[in-house]
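Before a colleague's protein record goes any further, I have to sign it off. My question to you is simply how this chain folds and whether the tokens agree. I do not need a full report, just your reasoning and any doubts. This is what I was given:
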Amino acid sequence: MSQRVLIVDDELLLAKDVANTLAASGYEVHIVQDGPSALVESQQFKPDIILLDLVLPTMSGLAVCAELRRLPATRRVPIVMLTARDDEDNITRAFAAGADDYITKPVKKYELIPRLGAHLRSKRLLDELEQQTRDRTLLLELQNTLASRFDLRQILRVVASRLIEAIHVERCSIILIEPGADTGVVVVASEDPNVQDIKLELKNYPEIVETMQTRAPLVVPDADHHPVFAEVKPKQVRAAILFPMLVTNEVIGVMLLRSSQPIEALSTRELTFGQTVASATAVAVRNARMFSGIAEESVRLDVERREVAERLELVRRFEDFISGAADGMLTMNENGIITFANRAAAEMLNINAGEGLNVDFLAYVEARDRDRIRAIISQSQSAHVTSVFDVPIVLAGERRILSASISSFMHRHGATLFTFRDITRDRQNAVELKRTKDFLENLIDSSVDPIVAWTPAGEVVIMNKAAESVFGFSEKEHPRAPDLFGATGAEEIMRDLRSPERGGVGKLDLSRREITNKAGEKIPVNFTAALVYQDGQETAVVGIFADLRERLRIENKLSLAQEKLQMSEKQAVIAELAGTTAHELNQPLTSIMGYAELLKKKIQDEALKRPLEVIAREAERMAEIVRKIGRITKYETKTYVGSTRIVDLDASVSEEEGAVVIPGPDKGRPS
């Protein structure tokens, strides 16, 4: 890579002439013509050496030199002053400002090139010396870390982070590999601190296989064009550097450094530094493993010593307890021969208490269960297990049930601790309890009334068949109280149960409610409920329902029948009243009409005849109304004035024409 020279001179022709001279010698040159531009360009161009004119516009060369020495990026870059003034004062001021040398104008090629080369060699030597110092410091730090810590994962995290800083890559992973194994284990990855023990199939990582085979560092500047990746292309990796972790020429792992961009070939210093770190880390890994093994063995021995001491102390502490325990305790060998029995066991089995016994426990066990019990006893001799099981035995001709457990407490001494208690009465009670429970469940399930029980949290625990039919839910669907009564309905029931106003706290009087089934149908029910308490705490709510749909349907039919009966009675009364009214009005109207006709014939005065015609006509009209009243057979009304309703004669009369039949004493006489 060519070295870079920044020329800062406002005399452009002179600067270009110097630039051409340097370019011909293989330098990369950039020109600026003032101080501020020089300060900016020095940060971007990153020159290896700077030629700086002493006299510049806006900002003097001395000021620019002083500022370049202050900036970290150019603090150590050689600066050669270009000046036409070779007087002692200017030269002294240039060196005071930080210049490394000066060349008088006009610049001579035979003077320029050697001087720049000398300064660049000095800078390179200083850089190498500084880098060696940094490498030694870092190696010393890593050596102290590797020597002072035995936490393997912490050691490798420190190493990975330091390698990234020293070799300038993005990521570093450390893979440990057992000799002859086809897999490796990623124990540390710098990009993810949580990575731990991820297995890799080595056949998918040819670069790791190559490093293990050659036992030498492998540098892949560009993975797209490197032969090691001819068959397997890495994902999201463009460059890789691998260092084998060697211990006595045996590869125990690989340090894999990766970059998402191509890199330049590593220098000899970087390769040597990386391999030194890898080898030192390999030794530290071996030491950490050895220390871990020693520590684990020490811990194991310490644990065993404590266990022995605890067992001895346990035996001393519980010797009296075992002898006086209410439960029976036996020790027996793998064949089921009793060697020790405490007082409770001796009393239950009718044998002697104490040690030195030689009683066959299996002789007490029912014949059909002996093989099972023998297998349990034998198994307890070879494993740290504790079993709990039932043992049916026969004592004095009576069948008894023992609840027994076998402990591996003394398995190393060829004996088993057998603890038991007589649960014959408990099992009988359990059978009775189950029978009672089954009866109650059948009773509830057979009830014609829906019965539902739920917890205060709303979880339904009982729903009989009648309730399933009403609600449309199956108990297997695990409905909740809000599903049955609605959210507000369930809360209202709990509120009423806790209130003293609806039957007392914990009880709910029979009341009419409306529920909604699964299909969304509103169902009227009679409902009563009660809280179930246990130890003073609410444990459940029991609700009993009566579906009122059929009852309400029957009540509705009865109501309609009553309305029809009342209407029939009303129509009969109206018909009788109409007949009586027609009968009573018929004779007066007949007289009025007869006398009106007689007067019309007798009176010749036309002025009097007209009123008589009106009387006769209106009487005839009244007679027609009476005839209609006499034919009323039903009760129909119509609006009269406002909201007043009157009998509708036209709608109420019979369609049959004929004589009016007058009810009463003269019934049957024509009107």
